[in-house]
Every structure is written in structure tokens, then in C-alpha cells.
Amino acid sequence: MSQAYAKKSVLWDWLTTVDHKKIGILYLAAGGFFFALGGLEAMLMRIQLMFPELGFVSEQTFNELLTMHGTTMIFLAAMPLLFGFMNYIVPLQIGARDVAFPFLNSLGFWLFLAGGILLNLSWFLGGAPDAGWTAYTPLSSAYSGTGIDYYVLGLQISGAGTLIAGINFLVTIINMRAPGMSMMRMPLFTWSSFVASALILFAFPALTIGLLLLMLERLFGATYFAVDMGGNVVIWQHLFWIFGHPEVYILILPAFGIFSEVLATFSKKRLFGYSAMVFATLIIGFLGFMVWAHHMFTVGIGPVANAIFAVATMAIAVPTGIKIFNWLFTMWGGRIQFTTANLFAIGFIPSFVMGGVTGVMLATSAANYQFHDTYFVVAHFHYVIIGGVVLGLFAGAFYWWPRMFGYKLNETLGKWFFWLFLFGFHLTFFVQHFVGLMGMPRRVASYLPGQGLDGLNLISSVGAFFMAVAFLLFVWNVIVSVKNKAEADPWDGRTLEWGIPSPTPEYNFAQTPLVRELDALWYEKMHGNGKLKAAEPLDDIHMPNGSILPVIMSIGLFIASFGLIYHVHPVTIIGLLITFGCMFVRSIKEDHGYHIHKEDIQKEEGAG
Amino acid sequence: MDPHVSDPSAPLKGGPSKKTEKKLAKEARHQVISFVFMIFLTSVAFLTVASDTIPNRFAIPFILLIAVVQVLMQLYYFMHLNDRGNGWNNIMLWTGIFVAVMTVPTLMLLIGVIKF
User: Fold this and answer.
1) What is the reported pTM?
2) How many domains does chain A have?
3) What is the pLDDT of residues A451-470, one digit of tens each?
4) What is the CATH classification number for the domain harbouring A453?
């Protein structure tokens, strides 16, 4: 085994890292970048819709903006940001030293990044995808330019990365829990990450198959979706939504987990109805699969199917309601601290409930014929995605920032940010319900004056500016707060991740902790000496070596995609050879990792 | 102390215990029996298609049924899914099957591959 790990340059270190904490930060950085990009696209659209018949962007550009806004926000911003928190926090919460497959963890990130960059390069290389983020056939198969090829291959590559990451988390949570950490003692964020990972495992194959069919259709002349050749365009819609509906829950469940952690910590109480929360999470996960056809009520799948899917969809409101009430009961009688993280969690509850109510309205299949493809739908899903996922991401950011970066975000700036963002969000999307009910269709580049849509659209756009300013305030906060050094446990936390020194050592726990109760650290604070009990003697810690292979593998697929898009087959073959070559090297090269020695750990722990 | 406690890669010494030997013999017997049974099932499936007297209406569900039996036997007799420590494998596998059994036929109904 190799001895001490030779320190390389900083860039090389980040490119080759297999440390779950660094990969988590990479996910956050890349996700944050794409979040800003998706936000910029949204702002351009809102400027275009500010006044009737405005010519700020062309219709084609508007279609591209709207497609890329949806795709970017779902696949390249929300999911990677959640993966960032999952990567950093889940192993710490279960008392593990790393994820189960550190190499695959790194591969998952670089595949996502390669796919994301590929997608966005389409802006500069002949036009972005323009068929909506759902890319419905035959629009996407027969009438779109090369943009959709970027969509297909970019999503395929980043989807593979997501699938890898999901499997990694499943195995990590099943196999790497510290002694005493039974399933029913896991923090809710870990639980919801676990269920979300299971959803990824079962849902992403549907997307992979759908994209594969679309790729074969576009690049190799297959006819799965060509009606004149005996195909069926609805196959794509089904495959897309069999993936797409669980995807909504892949996004929202980890956010629910974050709220459960934040509300319990800042109410100074254990989470109310822990086991009910766990089962509600499982039931939401399961029902998420059974309702995909509610996206297609107006496709003509028949009244029987519509009724079944309507009822199944409404059923999701029951476990979600259980969760909402449990959060309220967690706060009830608690000593609530209104930190920024907790403000986001409390602001989430009414915002998300409003999105849930319009969700039940949309699930009423008869009424859906009225709502379908109007701004009412846009308002609904922004209410659940922003009011649920984005508020969750910001709550998680403020809550875990000291753990991840060693400094606390400024609370005053944070509160300004929260109120501006919440106000802007409701201003933007609340009025869109009414714009939709008045008949304004979604995905249109403009509207005519004198139809009662002018004022509300202007209000909506002004709200979007509030959100943009608020986000800039957050970025500012990240920069100016660097000096606010935080102690290891700034919030008086309850779970294992607050029981280790700050900054987090690369081996996480010098000794694997012994878990005696739910909220393990809180239990030790109440019944022990406030320090985590160790489950093993202090010894050398085995660590995996870094590897550059994931980067090269992703670059290989990136190159192969260009070969496929422009039908230059030698390039495709070269790209695939690079990827398979890396897999071959990885298979035959023995890599035993290295050890961190006991003495070094003692020194570090003593100093920290 | 047994060297395996400190180093799992140390070479094994001595033979297996009587109990382990019995268990291995039983397992081998099970495997042979299930192997023969599976060959029998495969031949039945083959005959069902080859014979002209059996109508398709019966043959297709019948073959699917014995395929399911075979898959289960493969999983439990050859891949040892019922052994200790496979709880999570079972949960994930059966959840996946459950979801697929709900999703795939629904999808086929909805896009009109099969009709009722």
C-alpha cells in the first residue's frame, strides 16, 4: 500500500477527488452555476412577456429559452444541488467515512457536468433545443433542428450520472450506517435521500429508454414515433412521464428531508411523528410512480383511465398532508428560533400547501380540460418546485453552510434575501393562476393587448426581478460572509454531522460513532457528556486514491456525442474508445488506496 | 485466535464441519434437482410452441407462466436470494417487480398494444 498521499496542485486535486465532501461541493458549484443560467433564461422570458407584443426576443429564441429553462432547472440545477447536499451530508449523518463507491461518485458528477455542458453548448452551435423541456414527439422527432440532438445526448449522459449517483446512495445508506444506526434511527434527510435514490433507480431507466428511442429515430431513421410508418407519438409521452412524474418526487423528497432537519433543530424538539414521516415518505415515493398519466388527461386516453389516475393523484395529498401536520406539530410548543434557515422552512409550509391545492385542482380530470396548457399549470408547478425544492435548497444552504465551508452566512443579509425572494416568488406566480384561468396559454412568445392580460403579466415580471435581486443578495452574502468563522456545532444540532470538528476532516469520523437513539448527538448532549460515543478503537484509516479516469471517461462520451450529432462516425468511435479504454484501465489496474496513520489522526484531533 | 478474524485473506486450514458438509450436500442436491426441473420446463415451453395442437391463445400465457416459475427458481436456488443477508436485495428486487407489474401492463393498455 502506498504511504502518505502526495499532495498535487489544487486543480488536479479537485479534478481527481473521490472524497464525497469535495464532490458534494463540486455538485453545489456546478448546480449553482446552472441555477443562475436557468434563472437568466427565465428573466429573459419574463422581460419578453412584460408587455403585449414585445419584440425583445424572437419566437424561435423564446422557444429555446423556455426549453432550456425547464431542462436546466430540473436536470442541471435542482437535482445536482440536492445531490450536493446529499453527497456532503448523508455519509456524515449515518456515521460513515465515505459513500459506498467513491470512484463511481466522482464518475456520476463528471458525467452530469459533461451532459450539462453539452446541452448548453447548443446555444453556440446552431441553436438550442426548442421543443419544450418535455420534447414531445413528433415535434421533437420530425420538426426540430440539431438542438434536440443536444438535448437527447446531453440528458442521456447526465442521466447516466444521476443513475450512478442514485445507486451509490442506496448502497451507502443500506451498508454503511454506523453501529446502532438502525433504519428507524436515521435522520429524515437520509431517509428521504434514500427514497429519492430508489425512485431514481426505478424511474431513470424509463427516461433512458425514451431518449434511446428518440435518438434512434433522429440519428438512425427509426420510426417508433412516426405515425405514417406505423409508430405512435404517445409512446414518448408515456415514457417521458413514467420518468417525469417520479422525478418531481426525486426533487421534493430530499427537500422535505431538509425541512424536517431544520424545523426540528430550530424548534429544539425531536421531529413530531418520526415513524409517520418515514412511512409518508415511502408512500409518496410509491404513489409517485402510479400517477404519471395525469400529465396526459387531454391526450385521449379515455374516461376510465383518466378517473383512475385522477383518484391516484389525489391520494398523494394524504401522506403529504401527514407530513405538513407533523411539521406544524414539531413547531408547536417548541422554542422556535427564527434563523434564516428556519424562515425558509416556515415560509415553505404555506407556499407549498398552495401548490398542493392547485395540484388537486389539476388532478380533477374534468376540470383539467380547462386548465391544460395554460399559465395555471405554470403557476402550479412553480409553486411546488420553488415553494418546495428551491426554498428547501436555500434552507439547506443556510443550515449546512457552516458544516460545509466552515463559515456562517450573514443572518441579516439572509433575512433580506428570504423576504425579497418569498415576496418576489408569490408576486410572480400567484397572478399567473389568474392569467391562466383567463385563457393565456403557456409556451407562447407573446400575447395581444386588450385581453386583460397586460397588467397581470407586468406584475408577474416585476416579481421575477425581485427574485433575481434576492438571488444576487445571496451570492453577495456567500462572498462577504467568508470572515464569519463558525464553530463546529453552531446551531446546537441534533444529528451526527454536527458532532465532528470543523472543518470536516477528510476521514469524517476519527472513530466510527456508536448511535444510541434517534437524533444521536442530541441524545449524547442530554444523557451523555455531549460527545459521540466511539464504536471502535482509534486505528489507521483506509482511504481510496483519487482518480482522473472519471473526467476522461466523461470527455470520451462528450466527444462521442459530437460525432453522433454531426454524423461523423470516426469521432464517435474515438470518443467511445476513450471511454471504454478508461473502463479497461480501471478494471486491470490494482489500486489499494492508502492509509491515514493513527498518529496523524491523533495530532489532528488534538489540535482541532 | 483464528487468523481470519484479523486478516480475511489468510489461507484456510482444516476441513469444513459436519454441519457445513451436510448443508453443502443438501444444497448440491437442490441445485441438481432444480437444474433438471428447469430443463424440463424449458422443453415443455419448446414443445408448446412446436406442437400444432396447442393454440396460441393458450400457449402464450402458459409459456409466460413457466417463465416466471423459472426466473423465481433461478433467483432462489442459484442466486441464493433466500440466504441470510439478502433482505435488502429482496426488498429492492420485489419493489422493482411490483412497480414494473403495475406500470408495464398499464402502459400497454394505454397505448393500445393490448385491449380489454
Assistant:
1) 0.91
2) 1
3) 999 999 999 999 999 999 99
4) 1.20.210.10
